[in-house]
């Protein structure tokens, strides 16, 4: 089941990059998704994938809310923090985590540290003293 989720993730990325749903592009996308190497075969739990997909669904309205908030109220303060990677994450789930963090307008992942940390840049509203 996890192999299918990785294949679907690769196809979604392909279609987002090409923005073309023609028959030829679908055939090329499936070929590319199948030919890409799989990396180390660590089985991620289906529960983790479903939770990550649920987080993607929640992130979409959050991104719109943050975009309107930035337009209506200035965000002048910024900082860089380290966030811990959830334990037992496969490369596909790490990609989805980075996508979720970067999808919202107030945050972006600057760097993924191999020892299990994301370096995250955030913008915030200035706090009144």
Automatic annotation (TrEMBL):
This protein's name: Na+/H+ antiporter subunit E
Residues annotated as transmembrane: 12-36
Biological source species: Thermocoleostomius sinensis A174
Entry keyword set: Membrane, Transmembrane, Transmembrane helix
Top-level taxon: Bacteria
